[in-house]
Amino acid sequence: MDQVKRLKIVVLSDNFTSTIIPPLIGEWGFSAYIEADGTKILYDVGNSGLPVLHNAKLLGIDLSSIDYVVLSHGHSDHTGGLGNEELLKLLKGKTLIAHPSIFEKKFLNWSGKLQYIGLPLTREELEKNFNVILTKKPLEFAKGVMFSGEVKRYGNPEYNAGLFKSTEEGIEVDHLLDDVALFINTPKGLVILTGCGHSNVLNIVNYAKEVTGVNKIYAVLGGFHLLSSEPQHVNEVINKLSSEATKIGPAHCSGNLAKSFVAKDKFVDFGVGRSFEVFE
């Protein structure tokens, strides 16, 4: 796998903001802007798209210059921004990469009621606005940047409690096969970026090493979906991650407990406005 010589990741939307100046905003959801040797990527678009638009403007990021939009999975807190007309207009005509199951009708059992949490656009609308690439397989779509495709399970549990999908057979448990990550190869090792980590961040790390052929993990950043897990399980996951990665940046659905278990020398604040950079 090729290497990215210079990498910059800026968090545009997350549950928490990490700056005082400029006055940025957050919401439940996730979005990150990536520059990898000149290639510009928007990984997820947040829940409403409002933080993405507001924060990009204040941070001097031109969203119309994006080369690729990558969707980590079909849930609305990562794809809902596509329903924002202003954001959609800026991104129109870009190449969009996702897993084929992104179009599944997804639901959350919220307070005893099934609530729709899927894409805000139909497949026809998405293909009208983007050049869509759908793949289950890993894809190195830019030099040193790989779309994971469907993440192989290695015995670590999926995080899908209360999550369902509708099919012709009725309502079924959603195993989130569309949950994908980005693997970016840098001089310091792999940087792994997750959206929610429904497929389990440990499975994602194992798969990254398998499909890239790179065993050195520099950083694991993004959502780990540990917010509802028991403290012992959270601690076990963070300990295993710590044995693999030099830097760990829990965000979005990871939960505050996960952040507290990361050693100070490994911890990366990955809230809105934070920039993570790797260069030679």
Structure description:
The chain is built from 7 helices and 17 strands. With 280 residues, the protein is α/β, with parallel strands linked by helices. Strands 8-5-4-3-2-1-17 form a 7-stranded mixed beta sheet. Strands 9-10-13-14-15-16 form a 6-stranded mixed beta sheet. It has a 4-stranded antiparallel beta sheet with strand order 7-6-11-12, with no helix packed on it. Helix 1 links the parallel strand 3 and strand 4. The longest helix has 14 residues. The protein is globular. The model has no long low-confidence stretch (mean pLDDT 97).
Compile the SSE list and pairings.
Elements: E1 6-13, E2 31-36, E3 39-43, H1 50-58, E4 68-70, H2 76-79, H3 85-91, E5 95-98, E6 105-110, E7 113-116, H4 123-129, E8 131-134, E9 139-142, E10 145-147, E11 163-167, E12 170-173, E13 181-186, E14 189-194, H5 201-212, E15 217-223, H6 231-244, E16 245-251, H7 256-261, E17 275-279
Parallel strand pairs: 3-4, 4-5, 5-8, 14-15, 15-16
Antiparallel strand pairs: 1-2, 1-17, 2-3, 6-7, 6-11, 9-10, 10-13, 11-12, 13-14
The coarse silhouette is globular
Largest sheet: 7 strands, mixed
Query: Taking Cα atoms only, what radius of gyration do you get, to the nearest Å?
Result: 17 Å
| N to C succession of SSEs | EEEHEHHEEEHEEEEEEEHEHEHE
Spatial sequence of strands, sheet with the most strands: 8-5-4-3-2-1-17
Query: What's the total count of β strands?
Result: 17
Q: What structural class do you assign from the helix and strand content?
A: alpha/beta
Our count of helices gives 7
